């Protein structure tokens, strides 16, 4: 099975300049490489039709203790955070987070959201990676330390969204956000944020990423009926949607749990968390792909020599050997580098390995390049 790892970067020469210096006195420093997402292309092609046939079952529901709940995220698989706004900015329970045990589905704790969020809705959606929760509100994103429940920092990624209503995190370096019927924006978790958008017309509320290579959306309908929408990732193209007639209310945040369940917040009065079991096809026996491009990094010197480096992973169910791995580098529509390496293996299921390619000479400042790495393992 062929898998792709897409890696785009643009070369821009930075200068250190004093106001008194003429252009000829400028000192050359580093080349800045701004990268696109380092994620394998595992999802359907952009031309894939919307099928409206997502199989699901409802596993359980949690009735929430109040109204104005808006976002949720599992925390390390055993705990669920549910954020709550308030009916007014003077409400005594203004902007809390309720903490649930996901095994018993019981409320075990609560805490206040940090000050300075700026509107009565508080955190609109949340997503967790390790000991960090990213929580969206207004035009900003809070970064929260899970063990202490404290804000590490806040940042504005520059998407132009009036509200980052839905928020999701991929396993590597990126967040995605959206608002009602706005484009979906993807940006880095750290500076430079480099936001760029993808088409969307659904009245979206929550976003969630799964490790099968898809982005999910909880979607508002005119009839206040539950709906989920499925997008390919990382190219973010709509491929499927499904009404959920068992859910009646206003959509809220959503997040994946254990790579199988989509947790959907329903603002249904009473509000509730609905656990939807989604059904994914079993992994292929032979499925190896590039899951990360390790080199180039984010900085390089003009006219320097770089050895491209890919990390491959066995996503399948059986060990593989003699794996073809390719690296293409294009500039201005012309392929300037075309190399392939056969990794001998064997590579066991879920194992990774590094594959190094012959040296590449970086061009002068001002050039731009796109780098694509992929495998082409026979099915």
What's the short story on this structure?
InterPro entries: Ig-like_fold (IPR013783). The protein has no helices and 32 strands. It is mostly beta strands.
Instruction: Please state the overall shape, judged from the principal axes of the Cα atoms.
Output: globular
CATH topology description of the largest domain: Neuraminidase
Q: Which structural category fits the helices and strands? A: mainly beta
The CATH class name of the largest domain reads Mainly Beta
CATH homologous superfamily (4th level) name of the largest domain:
TolB, C-terminal domain
Question: Would you identify the CATH architecture of the largest domain?
Answer: 6 Propeller
The structural domain count equals 2
Rg over CA atoms: 23 Å
- Average predicted local confidence, pLDDT: 82
Give a structural overview.
This protein is an all-beta fold. It has 2 domains: 2-42 and 284-376, Immunoglobulin-like, CATH 2.60.40; 56-278, Neuraminidase. Helices cover 0% and strands 55% of the residues. The chain is built from no helices and 32 strands. Strands 1, 2, 3, 25, 28, 29 and 32 form a 7-stranded antiparallel β-sheet that branches. It has a 4-stranded antiparallel β-sheet with strand order 4-23-22-21, with no helix packed on it. A hairpin with a 7-residue loop joins strand 15 and strand 16 (196-198). It starts with a strand and ends with a strand. Mean pLDDT is 82; it is low at 4-49.
């Amino acid at each position: 099975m062929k898998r792709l790892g897409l890696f785009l970067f643009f070369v821009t020469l930075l200068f250190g300049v004093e106001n008194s210096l003429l252009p000829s006195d400028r000192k050359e420093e580093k080349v800045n490489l701004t990268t696109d997402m380092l994620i394998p292309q595992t999802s359907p092609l952009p031309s894939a039709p919307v099928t409206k046939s997502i199989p699901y079952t409802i596993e359980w529901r949690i009735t929430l203790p109040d109204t104005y709940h808006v976002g949720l995220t599992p925390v390390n698989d055993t705990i669920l955070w549910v954020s709550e706004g308030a009916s007014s900015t003077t409400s005594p329970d203004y902007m809390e987070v309720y903490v649930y045990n996901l095994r018993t589905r019981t409320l075990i704790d609560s805490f206040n959201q940090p000050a300075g969020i700026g509107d009565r809705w508080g955190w609109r959606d949340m997503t967790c990676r390790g000991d960090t929760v990213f929580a969206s509100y207004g035009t900003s994103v809070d970064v929260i330390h899970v063990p202490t429940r404290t804000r590490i920092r806040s940042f504005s990624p520059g998407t132009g969204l009036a509200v980052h209503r839905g928020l999701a995190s991929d396993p590597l370096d990126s967040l995605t956000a959206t608002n009602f019927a706005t484009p979906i924006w993807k940006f880095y978790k750290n500076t430079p944020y480099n936001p760029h958008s993808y088409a969307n017309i659904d009245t979206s509320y929550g976003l969630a990423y799964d490790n099968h290579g898809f982005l999910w959306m909880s979607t508002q309908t005119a009839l206040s009926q539950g709906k989920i929408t499925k997008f390919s990732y990382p190219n973010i193209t709509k491929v499927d949607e499904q009404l959920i007639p068992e859910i009646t209310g206003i959509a809220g945040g959503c997040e994946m749990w254990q790579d199988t369940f989509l947790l959907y917040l329903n603002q249904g009065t009473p509000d509730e968390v609905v656990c939807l079991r989604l059904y994914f096809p079993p992994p292929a026996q032979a499925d190896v792909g590039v899951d990360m491009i390790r080199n180039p990094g984010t900085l390089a010197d003009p006219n320097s020599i770089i050895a491209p480096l890919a990390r491959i992973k066995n996503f399948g169910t059986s060990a593989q050997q003699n794996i073809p791995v390719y690296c293409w580098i294009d500039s201005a529509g012309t392929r300037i580098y075309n190399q392939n390496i056969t990794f001998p293996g064997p590579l066991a299921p879920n194992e990774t390995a590094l594959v190094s390619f012959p040296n590449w000479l970086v061009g002068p400042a001002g050039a731009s390049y796109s780098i694509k790495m992929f495998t082409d393992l026979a099915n």
